[in-house]
């Protein structure tokens, strides 16, 4: 039965009351709240800083190449060339293959004893590079050594032609000049993919705990059914819970992006050759792009949480949603063709597409944002209506 106070409340007042109640319950669980918020602020930036340090370490390894060599005395001209390129030459151990397999060495250059004899005879000579390309940290050294040997090969071939009175252009008639139209910001967009990915992921992770607690959690505690004894319609109850979940989700997204903003603008990060432009304008664009997902995902999680008979079942159902949201950006990243225009209409794909445009510094038309927001807003309404319908079913409370 309704009291005189509650019966005089408007629909909006009742929705706000439910939202306030859910937010109060969330804030009361201080440990969960602090873990969620601190993770949002720190986890992404820390992970990003580690990636930057790894990239800087690889670049440093390529610049300061230490190359173990077997048979260095067999090719003095080659060794002199490598030293002029600031390569540190050292003797390779006898068990170099075992050390490469164990990761103690990245690459070893092996020069045959008949190197100079073949050179004097005008023959083609062979040097062997021994490495294990499956080790990620070794790739920078491998690629640097390969590049230097190709450069020496080209220089050597040019000198042979000149000695025979042949212009080098005869053997290489095509001169390729690369013109890179990418701006410095666009050149760093692949690394900044992590910012877009983590911001996108935060819009989902920020609402999972609150949504499950407000649905399956409340049902297991027995506090969900009494809410319907109040003068609330099931739609008002669903909207009130959705507003609370969405507000917390928006807070998590803002803190996540703020963490990236502070790190990229004020933290002493290693320089890897590209500027990381993530200022106030990019932060604002990110929030605007992610807003449709901040509205959609809490509504979907509300429905998923009500569908699960237990908290464990609801968590299992949510894992499928987490997998989809986390995989969509990865699939788009590895697409080998231009993204079709219709992807803007697809939830998650549309937001990821616009986030990558924002990181590249490209303009985003208002119509593009409307396209990316149209279906998420429609699905939000559908999910809320479906959640309200579930709340009218008795088996939802019985756990059957």
Secondary structure elements and their pairing?
Blueprint: H1 4-7, H2 11-28, H3 30-63, E1 66-70, H4 76-84, E2 88-91, H5 96-102, E3 107-111, H6 115-120, E4 127-131, H7 139-163, H8 184-187, H9 189-221, H10 234-266, H11 280-307, H12 311-333, H13 349-360, H14 366-391, H15 394-398
Parallel strand pairs: 1-2, 1-3
Antiparallel strand pairs: 3-4
Q: Give the overall silhouette.
A: elongated
Query: What's the helix count?
Result: 15
What is the first-to-last residue Cα distance? 27 Å
Quote the beta fraction: under 5%
Biggest pleated sheet: 4 strands, mixed
Proportion of residues in helical segments = 55-70%
**Spans of 5+ residues with little confidence (pLDDT < 50)?**
1-6
The residue-averaged pLDDT reads 80
Count the domains: 2
Rg for CA atoms = 30 Å
Total number of strands: 4
Structural class: mainly alpha
User: SSE order in H/E notation?
Assistant: HHHEHEHEHEHHHHHHHHH
Oligomeric status of the shown chains? single chain
Spatial sequence of strands, sheet with the most strands? 2-1-3-4
Fold and architecture overview:
- The protein is mainly α.
- The protein folds into 2 domains: 4-55 and 185-398, no CATH class; 64-172, 3-Layer(aba) Sandwich (abc type-2 transporter like fold), CATH 3.40.1710.
- It has helices spanning 4-7, 11-28, 30-63, 76-84, 96-102, 115-120, 139-163, 184-187, 189-221, 234-266, 280-307, 311-333, 349-360, 366-391, 394-398; strands spanning 66-70, 88-91, 107-111, 127-131.
- A 4-stranded mixed β-sheet has the order 2-1-3-4, sandwiched between helices.
- Helix 4 links the parallel strand 1 and strand 2 (88-91).
- Helix 3 runs parallel beside helix 7, helix 3 (30-63) packs antiparallel against helix 9 and helix 11 runs parallel beside helix 14.
- The radius of gyration is 30 Å and the shape is elongated.
- Residues 1-6 have low confidence and may be disordered.
């Amino acid at each position: 039965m309704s009291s005189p106070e509650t019966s005089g409340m408007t629909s909006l007042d009742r929705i706000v009351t439910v939202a306030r109640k859910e937010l109060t319950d969330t804030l009361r669980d201080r440990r969960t709240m602090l873990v969620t918020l601190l993770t949002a602020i720190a986890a992404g930036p820390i992970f990003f800083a580690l990636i930057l340090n790894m990239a800087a370490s690889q670049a440093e390894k390529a610049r300061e190449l230490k190359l173990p060599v077997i048979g260095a005395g067999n090719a003095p001209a080659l060794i002199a060339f490598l030293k002029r390129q600031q390569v540190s030459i050292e003797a390779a151990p006898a068990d170099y293959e075992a050390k490469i397999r164990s990761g103690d060495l990245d690459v070893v250059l092996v020069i045959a004893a008949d190197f100079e004899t073949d050179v004097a005879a005008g023959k083609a000579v062979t040097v062997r590079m021994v490495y294990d390309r499956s080790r990620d940290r070794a790739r920078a050294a491998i690629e640097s050594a390969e590049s230097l040997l190709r450069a020496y090969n080209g220089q050597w071939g040019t000198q042979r032609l000149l000695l025979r009175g042949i212009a080098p252009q005869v053997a290489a008639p095509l001169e390729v000049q690369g013109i890179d139209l990418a701006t410095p910001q666009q050149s760093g967009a692949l690394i900044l993919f992590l910012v877009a990915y983590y911001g996108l992921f935060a819009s989902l992770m920020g609402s999972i705990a609150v949504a499950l607690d407000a649905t399956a959690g409340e049902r297991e505690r027995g506090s969900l059914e009494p809410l319907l004894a109040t003068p609330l319609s099931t739609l008002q109850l669903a909207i009130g819970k959705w507003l609370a979940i969405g507000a917390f989700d928006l807070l998590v997204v803002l803190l996540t992006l703020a963490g990236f903003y502070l790190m990229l603008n004020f933290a002493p990060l290693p320089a890897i050759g590209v500027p990381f432009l993530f200022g106030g304008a990019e932060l604002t664009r990110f929030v605007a792009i992610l807003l449709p997902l901040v509205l959609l995902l809490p509504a979907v999680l509300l429905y998923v949480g009500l569908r699960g008979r237990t908290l464990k079942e609801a968590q299992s159902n949510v894992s499928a949603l987490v997998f989809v949201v986390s995989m969509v950006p990865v699939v788009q990243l590895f697409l080998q063709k231009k993204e079709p225009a219709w992807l803007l209409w697809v939830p998650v794909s549309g937001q990821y597409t616009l986030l990558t445009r924002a990181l590249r510094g490209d303009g985003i038309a208002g119509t593009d944002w409307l396209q990316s927001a149209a279906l998420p807003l429609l699905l939000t309404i559908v999910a809320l209506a479906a959640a309200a319908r579930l709340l009218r079913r008795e088996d939802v409370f019985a756990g059957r």
